[in-house]
Amino acid sequence: MVVSDVELDTLPTVIRQSVRQISSSETKSLPDHTSVSLNHGRPRSPVSEHHAIEEGVPGSSSVQQTKEQIIRARAQFIVTCCCMFAIGFNDASAGPLLPRMQSVYQISFLIVSLLFIFACVGFILGASLNVLVSDHVAFGKNHFLTWVSTIACVLQMIAFTLAIPAPPFPVFVLGYFINGIGSALQIAQVNGYLVVMGHNVNGKVALSQASYGAGAFVAPLVATQFSAMRHWSFHYLVSLGLVTANAFLTSAIFRLQSKEDCRAQIGLEPMEPDTSEHSPFRQIMNLKSVHILAAFIFLYVGTEVTIGGWTVTYIIQQRNAGSNSGYIASGFWGGILVGRIILIPLNSWLGDRLVMLIYIFLAIGLELIVWLVPSLIGNAVAVSLVGLFFGPMFPVALSASRKVIPRWIYTGAIGWITGIGQAGSAALPFLTGAIADAVGISSLQPLLVGMMSAMIAMWLLVPRPSRPD
């Protein structure tokens, strides 16, 4: 193992001397091909999380970028944020439109929930395609990143084009299926690239997720207006415009180049190679932490979209509110946006494992208020605060994943995790709709409390990090 002086200079003198001794002894005793992280033998220092993550990106702490490289890196990051904004806009659009869809198509909760189940199938298919393509294509020799991102945008364009004229409901469902594939591919590529972009990975992931929250905040404001119009489905013209712009930006900024070429253009060194004899797909499927995190994200995203998708219907029917209740969904997604920004220091201070549990317990308490307190204003405030504490959960989970998943399979692994997670955004709202069809929408709150309780159980199963917090 070789430890650079640049990295050691960030540590106190006593620790720095100890680290040099450890590094020297390990270099003599370990064969060249052995991958051992210094993080296992190093005392904790005040720099903790940000330094730990930046060490995972070769060249991130020692390479000086030129002005042109800095500008290009910022452009790449802005494009990833634009992609996340569009995905957030799409995820949060359904809630205010569901009552109008039921009215127009004369369908039950169960039938309208088919939108979610076919989107779920699309998400799983997209996640599987991402992992399989990652397995068979060498990242440094292809155009995988930008080709897949651009194709994902095109699939979303097709889906929204189908939805715009308010076609027969089966065609509408087909559009959701196609959009599910595109969204899964897009999320996998964006998150997979963000974690190898060099400096301040935590901050970039948090801001990209805040972009998702911004899109999700705006969507109900727009969808609520369209839901009262004759041509309610023209809402999807806005979605079409967003993904069309993203297709253009992705092609223009990344120029259909490989991930390694894109990294080289912003002054980063090549990524560490995979020295395993097994294929990336097999490594991902054999890694327990991947499946535990996928299950947690499945529950998290599913619960998040269930709140954003069904709360408006719940408030209208259980609290006798009007159609303007669609703005309550914006309060929830606005809370997510704010939480992903203002709670970043708290995440770093308390650490991934503890802060996640605190957020979930607080969200459960607030959801109990929505369930048991028959106050429209009180419910609206509580829903917004649930969004505030739900906001940082996804970035915190991604932070934990970077510490337990090998870096050379991270893009494929995060594609699988987020793809399965997006499947949750379809499966759990469908389950909620099916149960509501049988026993009424009053079942929403106990279901949400149960989902959040399952999140706690799954989070406790996530392995301890192999790299420090």
TrEMBL record:
Q: What is its main location?
A: membrane
From what superkingdom does this record's organism come? Eukaryota
- Under what name is this protein listed? MFS general substrate transporter
User: In this record, what's one Pfam family?
Assistant: MFS_1
Q: Name one GO molecular function term.
A: transmembrane transporter activity
GO terms for CC?
Answer: endomembrane system; membrane
Which family does the record assign?
A: Belongs to the major facilitator superfamily.
Kindly give the membrane topology term recorded for this protein: Multi-pass membrane protein
What species does this protein belong to? Lentinula detonsa
